[in-house]
Amino acid sequence: ASRGPPGYHRRAMAMRAALAAVAAFVLVVGAAAADLPVPVGMLPPGTVAPTGLRDSQTIMLPMRDGVKLHTVVDFPLNTPKQNLTAIIDRSPYGMYAIEMIADIYTMWGFVAVRQDMRGTHQSEGNFTIWHKSADDAFDTIAWIAQQPWSNGQVFSTGASADGLASFVMLQDSPKWLKAQFIIFASGRGYEVAMPGGAFREALDVLWLNSTVPTQGNQLIHTLKEHEAHDEWWAPLSGYGNWQKVDWPTVMFAGWYDIFLDGHLVSFEAFQKQSNPAVRGKHKLVVDPLGHCQSGSKYFKNNLIAGRVPLPIFLSTDLFKGIQTHKDIKAVTFYVMGPTDAWARGNYWTTLDDFPTPTRTSYYLNADGALTTTPPTAAADVTYLYDPSNPVPTVGGNNLKLHCGPLDQSPVENRTDVMKFETGPLADDLWVTGQLQVTLYVSSNATDTDFTAKLTDVYPTGESRLIQDGIRRMRWRDDTLKPEPMTPGQVYEVTLELWNTSYVFNKGHSMRLSVSSSNYPRFSANRNNGLPLLTEGPLLLAENTVHIDAAHPSHLTLPVIQPTDVPQHSVFWATEKSEQEKLDETRWMIEYLDRATGGLNYNEQTKEEYFAANLA
Questions:
Q1: Is the pLDDT of residue 438 over 70?
Q2: Of 8, 9, 185, 339, which is most buried, counting CB atoms within 10 Å of its CB?
Q3: DSSP symbol at 5
Q4: Is the pTM of this model over 0.90?
Q5: Rounded distance between C-alpha atoms, residue 311 and residue 309, angstroms
Q6: Where do the domains of the chain lie?
Q7: Residue 28 pLDDT exceeds 50
Q8: Multiple choice CATH, 358-561, 3.10.450.50, 2.20.130.10, 3.30.428.10, 2.60.120.260
Q9: Is there a contact between 289 and 396 (Cβ–Cβ < 8 Å)?
Q10: Omega within 30 of 0 (cis) for the link into 520
Q11: CA pseudo-torsion sign 563, 565, 570, 574
């Protein structure tokens, strides 16, 4: 027999997928039912203990251009409908996916407003890759502020695409917007889709075709039309708008997340360029994973449930205007390390800011060494790059591909992969910050790519990926106008390998692998210099990396001291045992089961469901 009204079962059916993705936040949607004791220390002080089901209203809300957006308003239980603050989550994923993040806060007395973005699910119009998102957000927030139950204050939250929708709100800066909680997202649209000038094929194509399948091909065409960083990208960027931010934020990022670079840049801009009244008052949590849930097994103390409560509780403090986590500073992040049980690393730290590193260069040598001593002899390495046989993607900051610190050794012995290695380290090497590779390169082609991967080589021979990057040569200097290469001319180029916090342990080696492809993470350069939409012939490219005194190609590491990142002993994920975290996660599911009128376990028993989703 069915339990609960229509809609709640559809929400519950999203639960299994949610547990394996960013929507793990949904796990804390309920507060304690009277007959279900709360695990000690789990919920913040002042948590309401409602019973029964939420009171929801559905509206087709008209925007300024007449397009109506499907909007659901969820009211907190046992609370008068007056003088209420709303939390909005705008999403292309549908009502019963990560839009439910907003519902978490109803247990603290907030109104949750969930909205399908235009052109998605039950909303009218066409999906515009966030081009109408700022206007739609402004119109919706203005409507919320005018409702008889509203106190005129609105907060926003969102993960992934919903987080991008939160970032673009700063363009119009609605006066009613008072705080934000932004999860796994970026305020830099161009750099998400075209990092280093290269089309991020797997993310761009697979995400659009799966999220808006009827519009996917046209939207992919639109992205390729704008491979230059032109004005089309302005609505997806925070540049020039950071000073409009006059509200505090909590941000949640991940070292292997698809949006890592843009998220960290956006946080820094919020901290240093926002309105002086809130400058320096934002908080950031960086876990190892972000979207990369499957990478959890590589990190100790990092069950999905183990990483969720801190940012949730920080955002709750923010929204409620209280401080129950005074020991958590502006920047809290996971210091990664090898998977060896004895390895240094794999713990949390909390600081006022990221540590200031010593920028240390490791130079490429013709014999394959990677040393802190610059080369003196004239040398270079040359390889043939064939775009019909690109280097396959293995791990990294991906979505819908294998992700995380995967072993690169299966693809490192190719003839188009140049390896440079330190040899076993005599001491631990601690790095936190931005990774860069500077290459002096030439080619017989007018356009090609250069890629780099930094890996941790275990004594066993495994070569675990830390970060990677790419530079498409026709966009090497200016992303507004392509510049062809002159065959044979040497160019200095910088590859951004994004950021990390990692401990290379004594006895391990560092390896830098240089090539010209990483497919399908990035589109394979056809070496012909033509626009993405034109394609043209596949050409072989003879590519050279120069490594002599005049051309000191090198890796730059942000080296720190272990004392710069002290372990934070009271953080939720490290002070509790794995069993305690499993018990608390089980409690969350049990509560949601009662609060929604019954989860749909997809023909599984509840015990099978727990076994599958809490592994």
A1: yes
A2: 185
A3: -
A4: no
A5: 6
A6: 358-561
A7: no
A8: 2.60.120.260
A9: no
A10: yes
A11: negative
